[in-house]
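Support request, please re-run this one:
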Amino acid sequence: MEPQEEKYSFIARMPDRPGSLQRAAEIIKRYGGNINRIQYSRCIDPSTVFFEVSASTEEYASIQDELAAIGYLQTSLPEIRFLRFHAHLPPTPGALSDFLDLTTQAGANIAHVDFDDAGKHPDRLTVSLSLEESEKVEDLLNALKSRYPLEILDYDTTGNTLDETVFYICFAQRLRTMIGSAEDPFLLALLQDINHIVQELTNRGEDPLQVFSSIIETGETLNRTSGEGFYADIQQIPVAPDVTLFCFQLPGGGNIFLFEGPDEAMMVDTGYGIYYPDVIEMFRHYGIGDGTKLKRIIITHADADHCGAAGFYDVPAFMHRGTEAIIRSQNRATGSPVESSILEMVYTTIINLFSRFNPPENYTLFDRPAGEMRGIFPVLGRFSFGGLTFEVLEALGGHVQGLVYLFCPEAGLLMTSDTVINFDSLTEARSRYSSLADFLVTSVNVDSGVARQERHALHDIAAGVDAAFAGTGRRCLICGGHGAVSVLDNGKIRAYGEIEHYTHRG
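Re-run finished. Output below.
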Protein backbone atom coordinates (compact mmCIF):
# COMPACT_ATOMS: atom_id res chain seq x y z
CA MET A 1 0.00 0.00 0.00
CA GLU A 2 1.41 3.37 -1.06
CA PRO A 3 2.07 5.89 1.77
CA GLN A 4 -0.63 8.58 1.76
CA GLU A 5 0.58 11.98 0.64
CA GLU A 6 -0.34 15.18 2.47
CA LYS A 7 0.39 18.84 1.79
CA TYR A 8 2.98 20.58 3.93
CA SER A 9 4.11 24.19 3.99
CA PHE A 10 7.46 25.52 5.14
CA ILE A 11 9.69 28.56 4.80
CA ALA A 12 13.26 28.28 3.53
CA ARG A 13 15.84 30.90 4.36
CA MET A 14 18.78 30.44 2.06
CA PRO A 15 21.90 32.26 0.86
CA ASP A 16 21.36 34.88 -1.85
CA ARG A 17 23.62 33.22 -4.40
CA PRO A 18 23.23 31.20 -7.61
CA GLY A 19 22.15 27.60 -7.14
CA SER A 20 20.54 27.95 -3.70
CA LEU A 21 16.98 27.51 -4.91
CA GLN A 22 17.94 24.59 -7.16
CA ARG A 23 19.66 22.89 -4.22
CA ALA A 24 16.46 23.05 -2.13
CA ALA A 25 14.34 21.78 -5.04
CA GLU A 26 16.73 18.89 -5.58
CA ILE A 27 16.39 17.81 -1.93
CA ILE A 28 12.60 17.84 -2.22
CA LYS A 29 12.76 15.79 -5.42
CA ARG A 30 15.26 13.30 -3.98
CA TYR A 31 12.89 12.34 -1.17
CA GLY A 32 9.83 12.02 -3.42
CA GLY A 33 8.23 15.37 -2.62
CA ASN A 34 6.20 17.30 -5.20
CA ILE A 35 6.27 21.11 -5.13
CA ASN A 36 2.68 22.42 -5.33
CA ARG A 37 3.48 26.07 -4.65
CA ILE A 38 6.62 28.15 -4.51
CA GLN A 39 6.97 31.89 -4.13
CA TYR A 40 10.14 33.92 -4.13
CA SER A 41 10.63 37.57 -4.90
CA ARG A 42 14.09 39.03 -4.67
CA CYS A 43 12.69 42.55 -4.63
CA ILE A 44 10.77 41.76 -1.42
CA ASP A 45 13.22 39.55 0.47
CA PRO A 46 16.32 38.09 -1.26
CA SER A 47 16.67 35.15 1.12
CA THR A 48 13.16 33.88 1.86
CA VAL A 49 11.32 31.25 -0.19
CA PHE A 50 7.86 29.83 0.55
CA PHE A 51 7.17 26.21 -0.32
CA GLU A 52 4.12 23.97 -0.31
CA VAL A 53 4.88 20.33 -1.07
CA SER A 54 3.02 17.04 -1.29
CA ALA A 55 4.78 14.13 0.38
CA SER A 56 4.24 11.27 2.76
CA THR A 57 4.93 11.91 6.45
CA GLU A 58 8.22 10.03 6.23
CA GLU A 59 9.31 11.79 3.05
CA TYR A 60 8.53 15.21 4.50
CA ALA A 61 10.47 14.42 7.68
CA SER A 62 13.52 13.54 5.53
CA ILE A 63 13.13 16.75 3.50
CA GLN A 64 12.97 18.81 6.70
CA ASP A 65 15.98 17.06 8.20
CA GLU A 66 18.22 17.68 5.20
CA LEU A 67 17.11 21.29 4.71
CA ALA A 68 17.75 21.92 8.40
CA ALA A 69 21.17 20.27 8.17
CA ILE A 70 22.31 22.75 5.52
CA GLY A 71 20.72 25.71 7.36
CA TYR A 72 17.89 26.29 4.89
CA LEU A 73 14.85 25.49 7.08
CA GLN A 74 13.45 28.46 8.97
CA THR A 75 11.92 27.35 12.26
CA SER A 76 12.21 30.52 14.32
CA LEU A 77 11.94 34.29 13.99
CA PRO A 78 14.93 36.05 15.50
CA GLU A 79 14.51 39.61 16.72
CA ILE A 80 16.04 41.90 14.14
CA ARG A 81 17.81 45.13 15.00
CA PHE A 82 17.87 47.68 12.20
CA LEU A 83 20.61 50.31 12.24
CA ARG A 84 21.20 53.30 9.99
CA PHE A 85 24.12 55.67 10.50
CA HIS A 86 26.76 57.96 9.00
CA ALA A 87 30.41 56.94 9.39
CA HIS A 88 33.24 59.33 8.48
CA LEU A 89 36.07 57.44 6.75
CA PRO A 90 39.68 58.54 6.52
CA PRO A 91 40.92 59.46 2.99
CA THR A 92 43.20 56.43 2.75
CA PRO A 93 43.29 53.49 0.29
CA GLY A 94 41.27 50.51 1.55
CA ALA A 95 39.28 52.54 4.10
CA LEU A 96 35.93 51.22 2.83
CA SER A 97 37.22 47.64 2.72
CA ASP A 98 38.44 47.89 6.32
CA PHE A 99 35.03 49.24 7.36
CA LEU A 100 33.17 46.41 5.63
CA ASP A 101 35.43 43.85 7.29
CA LEU A 102 33.97 44.92 10.64
CA THR A 103 30.35 44.65 9.49
CA THR A 104 31.00 41.25 7.90
CA GLN A 105 32.61 39.92 11.09
CA ALA A 106 29.51 41.01 13.01
CA GLY A 107 27.24 39.08 10.61
CA ALA A 108 25.41 42.20 9.45
CA ASN A 109 23.11 42.20 6.43
CA ILE A 110 23.71 45.46 4.59
CA ALA A 111 20.62 46.90 2.92
CA HIS A 112 22.03 50.22 1.74
CA VAL A 113 25.45 51.86 1.29
CA ASP A 114 26.06 55.36 -0.02
CA PHE A 115 29.53 56.91 -0.48
CA ASP A 116 30.93 59.42 -2.97
CA ASP A 117 34.28 61.14 -2.37
CA ALA A 118 33.37 63.72 -5.04
CA GLY A 119 30.04 64.56 -3.40
CA LYS A 120 28.97 67.15 -0.86
CA HIS A 121 30.31 65.02 2.01
CA PRO A 122 33.45 63.35 0.59
CA ASP A 123 34.33 61.47 3.79
CA ARG A 124 30.83 60.35 4.77
CA LEU A 125 29.56 56.80 4.35
CA THR A 126 25.84 56.17 4.92
CA VAL A 127 24.96 52.60 5.87
CA SER A 128 21.71 50.74 6.63
CA LEU A 129 22.10 47.25 8.05
CA SER A 130 20.36 44.65 10.18
CA LEU A 131 21.60 42.19 12.79
CA GLU A 132 19.82 39.30 14.47
CA GLU A 133 21.37 39.58 17.94
CA SER A 134 21.33 42.65 20.17
CA GLU A 135 24.77 41.80 21.61
CA LYS A 136 26.28 41.90 18.12
CA VAL A 137 24.76 45.35 17.53
CA GLU A 138 26.47 46.68 20.63
CA ASP A 139 29.75 44.97 19.74
CA LEU A 140 29.66 46.36 16.20
CA LEU A 141 28.85 49.88 17.39
CA ASN A 142 31.70 49.77 19.89
CA ALA A 143 34.13 48.53 17.23
CA LEU A 144 33.05 51.21 14.76
CA LYS A 145 33.07 54.03 17.33
CA SER A 146 36.62 53.19 18.29
CA ARG A 147 37.76 53.82 14.69
CA TYR A 148 35.29 56.23 13.04
CA PRO A 149 33.16 59.23 13.98
CA LEU A 150 29.55 57.98 13.87
CA GLU A 151 26.12 59.63 13.63
CA ILE A 152 23.27 57.22 14.47
CA LEU A 153 20.25 58.05 12.31
CA ASP A 154 17.90 55.19 13.21
CA TYR A 155 18.00 52.26 15.61
CA ASP A 156 14.85 50.13 15.47
CA THR A 157 14.16 46.98 17.47
CA THR A 158 10.41 46.75 16.73
CA GLY A 159 10.32 45.69 13.09
CA ASN A 160 8.74 48.99 12.06
CA THR A 161 11.59 49.45 9.59
CA LEU A 162 10.95 46.82 6.94
CA ASP A 163 14.54 46.11 5.92
CA GLU A 164 14.60 44.52 2.47
CA THR A 165 17.32 42.04 3.44
CA VAL A 166 15.16 40.48 6.19
CA PHE A 167 11.74 41.74 5.13
CA TYR A 168 9.62 38.83 6.35
CA ILE A 169 11.29 38.66 9.76
CA CYS A 170 10.71 42.38 10.30
CA PHE A 171 7.14 42.02 9.02
CA ALA A 172 6.53 39.21 11.52
CA GLN A 173 7.85 41.41 14.34
CA ARG A 174 5.25 44.04 13.43
CA LEU A 175 2.51 41.41 13.36
CA ARG A 176 3.52 40.27 16.82
CA THR A 177 3.03 43.79 18.21
CA MET A 178 -0.56 43.79 16.90
CA ILE A 179 -1.76 40.32 17.89
CA GLY A 180 -0.01 40.00 21.25
CA SER A 181 2.29 37.21 22.30
CA ALA A 182 2.55 34.55 19.62
CA GLU A 183 4.91 31.61 19.33
CA ASP A 184 7.27 31.44 16.35
CA PRO A 185 5.56 28.39 14.72
CA PHE A 186 2.24 30.25 14.74
CA LEU A 187 3.79 33.36 13.18
CA LEU A 188 5.64 31.31 10.56
CA ALA A 189 2.34 29.65 9.56
CA LEU A 190 0.70 33.08 9.41
CA LEU A 191 3.52 34.35 7.19
CA GLN A 192 2.86 31.40 4.86
CA ASP A 193 -0.79 32.40 4.61
CA ILE A 194 -0.01 36.06 4.05
CA ASN A 195 2.56 35.23 1.40
CA HIS A 196 -0.07 33.14 -0.38
CA ILE A 197 -2.45 36.12 -0.75
CA VAL A 198 0.48 38.32 -1.76
CA GLN A 199 1.23 35.80 -4.51
CA GLU A 200 -2.43 35.66 -5.57
CA LEU A 201 -2.91 39.44 -5.68
CA THR A 202 0.44 39.96 -7.42
CA ASN A 203 -0.68 37.53 -10.11
CA ARG A 204 -3.77 39.73 -10.51
CA GLY A 205 -1.55 42.75 -11.16
CA GLU A 206 -1.42 44.29 -7.67
CA ASP A 207 1.71 45.70 -6.06
CA PRO A 208 2.93 43.18 -3.44
CA LEU A 209 4.17 45.94 -1.16
CA GLN A 210 0.67 47.44 -1.15
CA VAL A 211 -0.65 44.09 0.07
CA PHE A 212 1.78 44.08 3.00
CA SER A 213 0.99 47.73 3.69
CA SER A 214 -2.78 47.10 3.69
CA ILE A 215 -2.41 44.23 6.16
CA ILE A 216 -0.29 46.33 8.51
CA GLU A 217 -2.64 49.31 8.19
CA THR A 218 -5.62 47.12 9.08
CA GLY A 219 -4.03 45.95 12.32
CA GLU A 220 -2.58 49.32 13.23
CA THR A 221 -5.93 51.06 12.67
CA LEU A 222 -7.71 48.73 15.09
CA ASN A 223 -5.00 49.15 17.73
CA ARG A 224 -4.84 52.91 17.27
CA THR A 225 -8.63 53.37 17.56
CA SER A 226 -9.12 51.26 20.68
CA GLY A 227 -8.49 52.43 24.22
CA GLU A 228 -7.43 56.08 24.34
CA GLY A 229 -8.05 56.43 20.60
CA PHE A 230 -11.62 55.10 20.65
CA TYR A 231 -14.50 57.20 19.31
CA ALA A 232 -17.96 56.71 17.84
CA ASP A 233 -20.80 58.55 16.14
CA ILE A 234 -24.19 58.04 17.74
CA GLN A 235 -27.83 58.46 16.81
CA GLN A 236 -30.61 58.16 19.41
CA ILE A 237 -34.03 57.58 17.84
CA PRO A 238 -37.35 56.93 19.67
CA VAL A 239 -39.01 54.03 17.82
CA ALA A 240 -41.87 53.24 20.26
CA PRO A 241 -43.33 54.92 23.37
CA ASP A 242 -40.86 53.18 25.67
CA VAL A 243 -38.14 52.08 23.24
CA THR A 244 -35.11 54.05 22.02
CA LEU A 245 -32.83 52.85 19.23
CA PHE A 246 -29.13 53.69 19.55
CA CYS A 247 -26.88 53.42 16.50
CA PHE A 248 -23.18 53.36 17.42
CA GLN A 249 -20.81 53.80 14.49
CA LEU A 250 -17.48 52.43 15.77
CA PRO A 251 -14.11 53.66 14.43
CA GLY A 252 -13.57 50.62 12.21
CA GLY A 253 -15.92 47.90 11.06
CA GLY A 254 -19.64 47.55 11.62
CA ASN A 255 -22.25 49.34 13.68
CA ILE A 256 -23.77 48.29 16.98
CA PHE A 257 -27.52 48.80 17.27
CA LEU A 258 -29.01 48.77 20.75
CA PHE A 259 -32.73 48.87 21.54
CA GLU A 260 -33.34 50.10 25.09
CA GLY A 261 -36.61 49.59 26.93
CA PRO A 262 -37.50 50.33 30.56
CA ASP A 263 -36.29 46.98 31.90
CA GLU A 264 -34.27 45.34 29.16
CA ALA A 265 -32.12 45.95 26.11
CA MET A 266 -31.45 44.09 22.86
CA MET A 267 -28.32 44.37 20.73
CA VAL A 268 -28.07 43.83 17.00
CA ASP A 269 -24.43 43.11 16.10
CA THR A 270 -21.54 43.64 18.48
CA GLY A 271 -18.63 45.28 16.67
CA TYR A 272 -15.08 43.94 16.89
CA GLY A 273 -13.91 42.16 20.01
CA ILE A 274 -11.02 44.61 20.41
CA TYR A 275 -13.53 47.43 21.05
CA TYR A 276 -15.49 45.61 23.79
CA PRO A 277 -14.00 47.47 26.83
CA ASP A 278 -14.50 50.81 25.05
CA VAL A 279 -18.08 49.94 24.11
CA ILE A 280 -18.97 49.09 27.72
CA GLU A 281 -17.53 52.44 28.84
CA MET A 282 -19.54 54.17 26.11
CA PHE A 283 -22.73 52.40 27.20
CA ARG A 284 -22.20 53.71 30.73
CA HIS A 285 -21.73 57.23 29.37
CA TYR A 286 -25.13 57.03 27.67
CA GLY A 287 -26.85 55.60 30.74
CA ILE A 288 -27.35 52.18 29.17
CA GLY A 289 -25.42 50.40 31.91
CA ASP A 290 -22.60 47.91 31.56
CA GLY A 291 -24.33 45.34 29.39
CA THR A 292 -26.17 43.58 32.23
CA LYS A 293 -29.47 44.99 30.95
CA LEU A 294 -29.04 43.02 27.72
CA LYS A 295 -31.40 40.07 27.26
CA ARG A 296 -30.43 38.98 23.74
CA ILE A 297 -28.04 39.63 20.88
CA ILE A 298 -29.08 39.27 17.26
CA ILE A 299 -26.18 38.58 14.89
CA THR A 300 -26.76 39.56 11.27
CA HIS A 301 -23.74 37.67 9.90
CA ALA A 302 -20.39 36.08 10.71
CA ASP A 303 -17.89 38.82 9.81
CA ALA A 304 -15.72 39.77 12.79
CA ASP A 305 -16.92 43.37 12.81
CA HIS A 306 -20.51 42.18 13.36
CA CYS A 307 -20.20 39.28 15.81
CA GLY A 308 -16.62 39.44 17.08
CA ALA A 309 -17.47 40.67 20.61
CA ALA A 310 -20.52 38.44 21.20
CA GLY A 311 -18.58 36.01 23.38
CA PHE A 312 -17.88 38.75 25.93
CA TYR A 313 -21.58 39.19 26.75
CA ASP A 314 -23.23 36.69 29.09
CA VAL A 315 -26.51 36.65 27.16
CA PRO A 316 -27.92 34.33 24.48
CA ALA A 317 -27.21 35.18 20.85
CA PHE A 318 -29.41 34.31 17.87
CA MET A 319 -28.00 33.63 14.42
CA HIS A 320 -28.38 31.75 11.15
CA ARG A 321 -26.90 28.27 10.77
CA GLY A 322 -24.84 29.64 7.84
CA THR A 323 -23.24 32.07 10.32
CA GLU A 324 -22.46 29.15 12.61
CA ALA A 325 -20.77 27.33 9.69
CA ILE A 326 -18.57 30.33 8.85
CA ILE A 327 -17.51 30.81 12.47
CA ARG A 328 -16.58 27.13 12.73
CA SER A 329 -14.70 27.02 9.41
CA GLN A 330 -13.02 30.42 9.96
CA ASN A 331 -13.62 31.19 6.29
CA ARG A 332 -16.08 33.97 5.46
CA ALA A 333 -16.66 32.42 2.01
CA THR A 334 -17.98 29.12 3.39
CA GLY A 335 -21.03 27.96 1.43
CA SER A 336 -20.49 30.52 -1.34
CA PRO A 337 -19.31 30.25 -4.97
CA VAL A 338 -15.84 31.48 -3.87
CA GLU A 339 -15.47 29.12 -0.92
CA SER A 340 -12.05 27.91 -2.12
CA SER A 341 -10.62 31.44 -2.48
CA ILE A 342 -7.33 31.75 -0.63
CA LEU A 343 -7.97 35.49 -0.31
CA GLU A 344 -11.18 34.95 1.68
CA MET A 345 -9.68 32.25 3.89
CA VAL A 346 -6.56 34.19 4.82
CA TYR A 347 -8.35 37.51 5.26
CA THR A 348 -10.70 35.83 7.75
CA THR A 349 -7.70 34.54 9.69
CA ILE A 350 -5.98 37.93 9.71
CA ILE A 351 -8.98 40.05 10.70
CA ASN A 352 -10.02 37.60 13.41
CA LEU A 353 -6.55 37.85 14.93
CA PHE A 354 -6.24 41.61 14.67
CA SER A 355 -9.73 42.25 16.06
CA ARG A 356 -9.64 39.79 19.01
CA PHE A 357 -12.44 37.68 17.54
CA ASN A 358 -14.62 36.21 20.30
CA PRO A 359 -17.83 34.77 18.79
CA PRO A 360 -20.73 33.58 20.94
CA GLU A 361 -20.73 30.22 22.68
CA ASN A 362 -24.29 30.49 23.97
CA TYR A 363 -26.45 30.79 20.88
CA THR A 364 -29.69 29.66 19.27
CA LEU A 365 -30.10 29.10 15.53
CA PHE A 366 -32.97 30.65 13.61
CA ASP A 367 -35.54 28.26 12.17
CA ARG A 368 -35.28 27.12 8.58
CA PRO A 369 -37.58 28.72 5.97
CA ALA A 370 -41.18 27.47 6.15
CA GLY A 371 -42.48 28.97 2.91
CA GLU A 372 -43.49 32.47 4.03
CA MET A 373 -41.89 35.28 2.00
CA ARG A 374 -41.32 39.02 2.32
CA GLY A 375 -40.63 40.07 -1.25
CA ILE A 376 -37.80 37.83 -2.45
CA PHE A 377 -36.68 36.96 1.10
CA PRO A 378 -37.80 33.91 3.09
CA VAL A 379 -39.18 34.73 6.56
CA LEU A 380 -37.37 32.62 9.17
CA GLY A 381 -39.53 33.67 12.10
CA ARG A 382 -40.60 36.54 14.35
CA PHE A 383 -39.74 37.82 17.81
CA SER A 384 -40.91 40.70 19.99
CA PHE A 385 -39.13 43.39 21.93
CA GLY A 386 -40.68 46.35 23.76
CA GLY A 387 -44.04 45.73 22.12
CA LEU A 388 -42.52 45.68 18.63
CA THR A 389 -42.58 42.61 16.40
CA PHE A 390 -39.58 41.90 14.16
CA GLU A 391 -39.45 39.59 11.16
CA VAL A 392 -36.20 37.72 10.53
CA LEU A 393 -35.56 37.66 6.77
CA GLU A 394 -33.05 35.29 5.17
CA ALA A 395 -30.65 36.96 2.74
CA LEU A 396 -29.73 35.21 -0.52
CA GLY A 397 -25.96 35.03 -0.03
CA GLY A 398 -24.68 38.17 -1.77
CA HIS A 399 -22.47 39.51 1.04
CA VAL A 400 -21.86 36.23 2.88
CA GLN A 401 -23.89 33.11 3.52
CA GLY A 402 -26.10 33.10 6.61
CA LEU A 403 -26.83 36.83 6.64
CA VAL A 404 -30.22 37.95 7.98
CA TYR A 405 -32.21 41.19 7.87
CA LEU A 406 -34.65 42.42 10.52
CA PHE A 407 -37.88 44.14 9.58
CA CYS A 408 -40.45 45.78 11.86
CA PRO A 409 -43.32 47.07 9.66
CA GLU A 410 -45.20 48.88 12.48
CA ALA A 411 -42.16 50.96 13.49
CA GLY A 412 -40.78 51.23 9.95
CA LEU A 413 -37.45 49.68 10.86
CA LEU A 414 -35.42 47.84 8.21
CA MET A 415 -32.06 46.51 9.38
CA THR A 416 -30.16 45.84 6.16
CA SER A 417 -26.76 44.77 7.54
CA ASP A 418 -24.02 45.15 4.88
CA THR A 419 -26.34 45.01 1.87
CA VAL A 420 -27.65 48.61 2.02
CA ILE A 421 -25.22 51.18 3.45
CA ASN A 422 -25.20 54.97 3.36
CA PHE A 423 -21.64 55.30 2.05
CA ASP A 424 -21.89 59.09 1.92
CA SER A 425 -22.28 59.13 5.71
CA LEU A 426 -18.95 57.36 6.28
CA THR A 427 -16.08 59.54 7.40
CA GLU A 428 -12.90 59.56 5.35
CA ALA A 429 -11.19 57.41 8.00
CA ARG A 430 -13.97 54.81 7.97
CA SER A 431 -14.03 54.75 4.17
CA ARG A 432 -10.26 54.24 4.11
CA TYR A 433 -10.47 51.38 6.58
CA SER A 434 -13.30 49.70 4.63
CA SER A 435 -11.28 49.95 1.42
CA LEU A 436 -8.49 47.82 2.94
CA ALA A 437 -10.74 44.74 3.16
CA ASP A 438 -12.11 45.42 -0.30
CA PHE A 439 -8.55 45.44 -1.67
CA LEU A 440 -7.40 42.32 0.17
CA VAL A 441 -10.34 40.13 -0.94
CA THR A 442 -11.04 42.06 -4.21
CA SER A 443 -14.72 42.38 -3.13
CA VAL A 444 -16.34 42.12 0.29
CA ASN A 445 -19.35 40.48 -1.40
CA VAL A 446 -18.96 36.78 -2.15
CA ASP A 447 -21.51 37.16 -4.96
CA SER A 448 -21.82 40.74 -6.21
CA GLY A 449 -24.68 39.98 -8.62
CA VAL A 450 -26.84 38.53 -5.86
CA ALA A 451 -25.89 41.44 -3.57
CA ARG A 452 -27.24 43.89 -6.16
CA GLN A 453 -30.47 41.94 -6.42
CA GLU A 454 -30.88 42.00 -2.63
CA ARG A 455 -30.14 45.73 -2.48
CA HIS A 456 -32.89 46.53 -4.99
CA ALA A 457 -35.37 44.32 -3.11
CA LEU A 458 -34.59 46.04 0.21
CA HIS A 459 -35.06 49.44 -1.42
CA ASP A 460 -38.48 48.21 -2.60
CA ILE A 461 -39.43 47.19 0.96
CA ALA A 462 -38.34 50.60 2.29
CA ALA A 463 -40.26 52.40 -0.44
CA GLY A 464 -43.34 50.33 0.40
CA VAL A 465 -43.15 51.38 4.06
CA ASP A 466 -42.75 55.03 3.07
CA ALA A 467 -45.84 54.74 0.88
CA ALA A 468 -47.81 53.21 3.75
CA PHE A 469 -46.67 56.04 6.06
CA ALA A 470 -47.55 58.79 3.55
CA GLY A 471 -49.03 61.84 5.26
CA THR A 472 -47.99 60.77 8.77
CA GLY A 473 -44.52 62.33 8.77
CA ARG A 474 -43.00 58.94 9.54
CA ARG A 475 -40.38 57.24 7.36
CA CYS A 476 -38.81 53.82 6.93
CA LEU A 477 -35.53 53.91 8.85
CA ILE A 478 -32.79 52.01 7.04
CA CYS A 479 -30.27 50.71 9.57
CA GLY A 480 -27.22 49.63 7.57
CA GLY A 481 -24.32 47.63 8.90
CA HIS A 482 -22.06 50.66 8.48
CA GLY A 483 -22.79 54.37 8.41
CA ALA A 484 -25.74 56.37 9.66
CA VAL A 485 -29.37 55.34 10.09
CA SER A 486 -30.89 56.75 6.92
CA VAL A 487 -34.00 57.24 4.81
CA LEU A 488 -34.69 57.05 1.09
CA ASP A 489 -35.25 60.29 -0.81
CA ASN A 490 -36.03 59.92 -4.51
CA GLY A 491 -34.12 56.66 -4.64
CA LYS A 492 -31.09 58.08 -2.83
CA ILE A 493 -30.16 57.42 0.76
CA ARG A 494 -29.51 60.22 3.28
CA ALA A 495 -28.72 60.32 7.00
CA TYR A 496 -31.66 60.71 9.38
CA GLY A 497 -31.75 63.04 12.37
CA GLU A 498 -28.91 64.26 14.56
CA ILE A 499 -25.54 62.53 14.89
CA GLU A 500 -23.47 63.05 18.05
CA HIS A 501 -19.72 62.45 18.25
CA TYR A 502 -18.31 60.55 21.24
CA THR A 503 -14.66 60.16 22.21
CA HIS A 504 -12.90 58.05 24.81
CA ARG A 505 -13.02 61.01 27.20
CA GLY A 506 -16.75 61.42 26.65
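The domain at 227-503 is CATH 3.60.15.10 (Metallo-beta-lactamase; Chain A). The chain has a mean pLDDT of 92.
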